[in-house]
Amino acid sequence: MDVTQTTAEGLKREFRVVVPAADLETRLNDRLVRLKDQVRLNGFRPGKVPVAHLRKLYGRAVMAEAIEELVRETNAKIVTDNGFKLAMDPQVKMPEDKAEIEAVVDGKNDLAYTVALEVVPAIELADFKGVSLERLVVEVGPEEIQEALKRLADGNKPFSPKPEGSAGETGDRLTISFVGRIGGEPFEGGTGEDIQLVIGSGQFIPGFEDQLLGAKAGDTRTVSVTFPENYLAEKLAGKAAEFDVTVKSVEAPGEVAIDDDFAKKLGLESLAKLEEAIAERIKADYTAQSRQKLKRQLLDKLDELHKFEPPPTLVDEEFKAVWETVLSDLKTQNRTFADEGTDEEKARAEYRGIADRRVRLGLVLAEIGEKNAIKVTDEEISRAIIERARQYPGQEQQVWDFYRKNPGALASVRAPIFEEKVVDYILELATVTDRTVPKDELFKDDEQAAA
Questions:
Q1: Its principal location (predicted)?
Q2: How far is Cα 234 from Cα 294, in angstroms, rounded to an integer?
Q3: Exposure pattern of 113-139 as b/e (b: 16+ CB <10 Å)?
């Protein structure tokens, strides 16, 4: 077999492979000999079918299998011998002339084909001990705990029926049934029975609750609203609708005493324990936000420290996915590039840069993980799948089976775990300084922070 490199441009490599017909013949005979012990043909005892007869019956099919196997082996050898890391699957180009292909399959001609590869560049990792980062820290104050307690109490207020003939006011709870129509026709998801709605809570489409102010038990009202442009159900976004609403009951909110009894109703032994639990939850929210900002800082540093040209095919694929999302979001929101203060050409350049960054950072994180033997265990993957399954009560087994039977879905579980483990590894080496800040600064978005 003769393997010759014909192209080495940037990250693209191409090889021409020539396999003598004699080598193919040897492979064919080896496979036919193995096949002899497996096939059962009338008139022949098991294992006694002549190879020549098998060749007559199955020769072309077996030769095709032999060629396919040889190509796989040869591609793997090229990668191994050259120490390549591939950015994409090898692209094999076989002869296009039908007569030439027939001659190869019949064992009359040598097999000549080309294989194109795109490789990952060698990545020289920075010294992470020289990386300095700042972690934002927010202390949980007593006023935040009290505000959260009040919200919790408001969400657990008891409601009692108002006197007959009483009108609904802001804060009252109505039990309603409704039928929605668009263009005079009912639509999917537009019907509800015995739905509880607190006026002023913002549960429903903007304008819906306001039109029920003053409604009494037994009243029927026609509520006219327009679905928001960014409504999740794309078919309804921006559409005008009418709802025939029947008010079943009107209830007034009661007061909730924030005390030990209230805490016990929520499953905690005392108000002090409830306050501790609230403080821990708020602290967890702050820690998660702080981690997100710290990770963004770290990725920015990695971006600065590792400048190289990523494989074009990977960038193309990433850009395609990003661009499809951008166009979909614009369509859903009924907006244009002009509405975003740009044009399509500038937007393409911007998102192309984002795709380039994502690919480079992905390769850098992968290199760090590989060089430092960072692995994701089966146990970690199983825990993550279980957490996802818990989000679908009653369908846990189906979710579990879906991930376990779909390699792509399983990879989507593994990838974020791996990334977080690599980030943790770098943070252990880097110099991280804590800075206490107000809550508003922690939750200020990145664009505001940069302004």
A1: cytoplasm
A2: 35
A3: bbbebbbbeebeebebeebebeebebe
Long-range CB contacts (within 8 A, 24+) of 426-429? 426/128, 426/131, 426/298, 426/302, 426/368, 427/133, 427/294, 427/298, 429/128, 429/129, 429/131
Rg (CA), the chain: 33
Q: Are 399 and 385 in contact (CB under 8 A)?
A: yes
**What tens-digit pLDDT sequence spans the chain (451 residues)?**
899 999 999 999 999 999 998 888 888 888 888 787 777 777 676 777 777 777 787 778 888 888 888 999 999 999 999 999 999 999 999 988 888 888 888 888 898 999 999 999 999 999 999 999 999 999 999 999 999 999 999 888 899 999 999 999 999 999 999 999 999 999 988 999 999 999 998 889 999 999 999 999 999 999 999 998 878 787 888 899 999 999 999 999 998 999 999 999 999 999 999 999 999 999 999 999 999 999 999 999 999 999 999 999 999 999 999 999 999 888 877 789 998 999 999 999 999 999 999 999 999 999 999 999 999 999 999 999 999 999 888 888 999 999 989 999 999 999 999 999 999 999 999 999 999 999 999 998 754 443 2
Joined tokens for residue 58: 């199955």
- What are the angstrom distances between the C-alpha of 29 and each of 15, 188, 427? 27, 64, 58
Which is nearest to 309 in space by CA: 364, 356, 367? Answer: 356
Residue among 241, 166, 183, 184 nearest 207 (CA): 241
- Determine the length of the chain: 451
Residue pointed to by tokens 């080495």: 8
Q: CA-CA distance, 108 to 111, in Å (whole number)? A: 10
CA distances from 74 to 68, 100, 205, 449 (A): 10, 21, 62, 53
Type and span of the H or E element at 338: none
Provide the token pair at 392: 């679908």
Domains annotated on the chain, with CATH: 2-118 (3.30.70.1050), 158-253 (3.10.50.40), 268-450 (1.10.3120.10)
Phi, psi of 207 (to 5 degrees): 95, -20
For residue 171, give both structure tokens: 């804060």
